[in-house]
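FIELD: query
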Amino acid sequence: MVLAGTVNGSASLTCRVLRRSDETMLARVVRLVEEAQASKPPIARLADRVVAWFVPVVLLIAFGAFATWWIAGEHATALTSLVAVLVIACPCALGLATPTAVVAASGTAARFGILVKDGAALEAITRVEVVVLDKTGTLTLGKPVVCEVSPASGVTEDELLAAAAAAEAGSGHPAAEAVLATARERKIPVEPARNVRIEPGKGIRGTWRGEPLLVGSRELLAAEIGRFEESAAETDGRLVIHVALGRRRLGTIVLEDAVSESSREAVAQLRAEGLRVRMVTGDRHAVAERVAEELGILEWEAERTPEQKHAAVRKLQEAGTPVAMVGDGINDAAALAEASVGIAIGSGADVAVESADVVLAENDLRAVVRFVRLGKRTLRIIRQNLAWALIYNVILIPCAAGVLIPVWGIGIPPAAAAGAMAASSVSVVTNSLRLRRFR
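FIELD: result
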């Protein structure tokens, strides 16, 4: 097998192409990402709707006041009222209400290792009802370790590890890295297998010491050497690698990918925020069930392909349930783009990071909880800013037009109107800066 990205040396190489570039798994994932990004609706801002009618209404009031005072013979008051209304009604406060809060919140998020790529995510996260979590590398550490080596009768642990390491030598899979690390610790020489062929979701085939070598799932071995009993480790939901050489089963290697302590705390805190927590993973049912039970996650799906993850998120969204998706791999990219808010782990695949609205610098799900709380605080600040800007205009525009002059003889001169306008803008900015004190 010649993998994508392989660099050929000076010799000639003849390959048989099995699929076109647009039929590969990566191409399908990219297609799903593009579709999801294209269908994501823009978030409408209240300020935009208000400004749409604000200017014409202000112009109408300003020239209406001018005409009224002019007809009444108060020519000086007419001119003063016209200028005062136009100055005091400058929509700066309305224009600053949202962006200043978003900028302040984004800066605060960055201090906690949260990169906000799309400011709309700060508002969208407040509407989210379900948080969908990937398992490997998100809920778990993403670094499985060998916890048990069980050779068959007549086989030593070193022989079993040597055979497994021979097949895994060029894999790059986290499980392969764990096996190779154990072999290195035990100073076992690794002789790479030949004619290696990776079967996604099943394992690896190759030739080692002149015999066929199989390393991977029970299904892979059963198809070649016949069925055998399920081990206790598989029933417990741990990752089990079976190894066979020729027609002989050499034994099993058991790995565990520990659940991170931050995940336990984060799941509980997300529930406390009133959110449903759902796990969707490509791993086996037994593994997913073990992790779900350990974290107290009641809703979960296992053995899901990238397309099925994307479909699961879309189904929830089409049912009117806003979703936040948290993941780190290529398999999560389409789902991240489809979700109302996509949150990627920064150490994950580039395509996942590119598809997300928010990127976490570290694999710590407590940052998701912090982002949810920051989003709620930001929306509250935006509403306060908009309320202040609207109340300011509703009260002071009529005063600038001179409605109090006939009653109390009080008007607002243009200079005072300019001061009031500046004060309103400063108050909005000052209120937004309160987000810098968020903890």
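FIELD: remark
The domain at 145-256 is CATH 3.40.1110.10 (Calcium-transporting ATPase, cytoplasmic domain N).
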